[in-house]
Specification:
Layout lengths: L2 H22 L21 E5 L2 E3 L4 E10 L4 E3 L12 E4 L5 E7 L4 E3 L8 E4 L2 E10 L6 E11 L1 E2 L8 E11 L1
Length: 175
């Protein structure tokens, strides 16, 4: 057989075989997932939920924000072990009816990583942050929502991802 004919036959066959092998990697009926949609971010591995809080007008109460970190990841505790690490930080915006006295962070667990000289203070799994809210005497009765944001930096055992911010609203009922 003529070598130029072999090349004309082999190249299209290689192209078809290559295309078929790529199609076989995806289950039937499933669209191919672009690599960009699988990108890990600090926000994609952390879930946040603010628990409903009741408070009397003119009084104060603790609001609880539950932070859930996916398995295999952690976020830096507050305070972090080293000053260059980004601490987990809950920022609550004051409103016409509420102010924030302080935020309490749980003690982090210490875990040793190959890239650090000493164990790092981190949060893994579920953790709760507490914020003491004060309602003004003139606070309107009923349910209200206080805007807040959680600043985090998620890491795994090998790499830290860019810091991120998760917006949330804390539900507060004034009695």
């Amino acid at each position: 057989m003529n070598p130029s004919i072999r090349i004309r036959i082999c190249i299209p066959l290689l192209f078809i075989a290559s295309a078929c092998s790529k199609l076989a990697q995806n289950p039937v009926g499933q669209p191919a997932t672009p690599a960009a949609s699988q990108r890990i971010t600090s926000q994609s591995v952390v879930d946040v939920a603010a628990q409903p809080t009741e408070i009397a007008a003119g009084g104060s109460a603790d609001a609880t924000v539950r932070v859930t970190i996916k398995s295999g990841y952690h976020i830096n505790a507050n305070p972090p072990t080293y000053p260059y690490l980004k601490a987990t930080s809950l920022e609550i915006s004051p409103t016409d009816d509420f102010s924030v006295s302080f935020v309490t962070y749980p003690e982090g667990s210490n875990k040793k990583f190959p890239f650090a000289e000493k164990p790092l203070a981190i949060y893994e799994g579920d953790t709760e942050l507490k914020a003491t809210l004060k309602a003004k005497k003139s606070a309107k009765p009923g349910e209200q929502f206080i805007p807040a944001s959680l600043r985090i930096q998620a890491c795994d055992d090998q790499v830290c991802y860019p810091p991120g911010q998760i917006e949330l609203r804390i539900p507060v009922t004034v009695k």
